[in-house]
Amino acid sequence: MGSHDVARRLIVGGIAVAALLLVALVGFLVLSYTPAFTIGSVEADPTEHMDSATIVRLANVRQGSTLLNFDESGIRSALRRNPWVQDVSFVREFPGTLRLVVTERKVDCIVVMSAGNVAWCMGGDGSWIEPLPLSVAEGESANEVALAKAQEMGALLITDVPSSVSPVAGSASTDETIQAVMSYRKTFSDALSSQVVSYKADAVESISCVLKSGVEISLGSPRDIESKESVINSILQKYEGRLTYINVRVYGSPSYRMVDSDKVQAGSGTAGGDYASTTSSSGGSQATTSQQGSGSDQSEATGQAVTDGTSDGTGQDGSSADGSGDGQDSGSQSADATSESGSQVGE
Asked: What is the pTM of this model?
């Protein structure tokens, strides 16, 4: 067979395929705009926060639509007016039933404002979902109640967010303190992120977090995150089971707080509370103190106690030697109960 015959057959075959595709397209268009496959029934699978009737009502499928020409983008937009809706897929059940399958947003974070007893649910895409009222009993704090809710939902807790933040259901969070937390979450390795129970986000320059072990870490503004993580891991490994606090705001001059005890027990898991406790012995008797009374901070670089000009030891930013504003934490703090204060170990 000559090359001309092969070329001729390929051309004829191509024309035939194109003709079939044209016929199919014309047939589809004809069916799309005729009563064939008209949607006579719209059904939906219920979700955790929406029943079938609500989904169908919100979708508002236009009367006279067919399974071949209904407005998919319009239905998606209508359903996304409910902040729980992340996406929707469509199942065509011929000859005339359209089934809507809604994918809900998963609660990724519980965000607690600095004032009041109201928290907000936030999705993994950074969108506000809905407020979460907190029922705070006597002797409890809003952060403790929110932490229990977050653990129940498998979500992260973010506390002390400035009251200037005004969440709107369905909108994206653009607040700088929330974005600072997200920067740490995106940059931290999975190994470290999986240990974080909560973040405190009262200001961009004073972001902190609490680990499952009860150790509080003062992170500061979201700069040099990878370097900070390296320092954190080094200190955690070196003093495993004895740390209560690490400051890496200036990662080149970190400080830490540890106790003279064989074990630090995890506490509430929220910044500003009793994250950890230690049991120390003195004169044959034992007494338990909270983390905040565990002794003076030490510099990993020098082994000397360092301060930032504050008196309460809470880790607020002060003036550092280089004038950057990222200072180290203050020295010894008062114990919450009478006991032997923990000794500090430096390099």
From this structure: 0.71
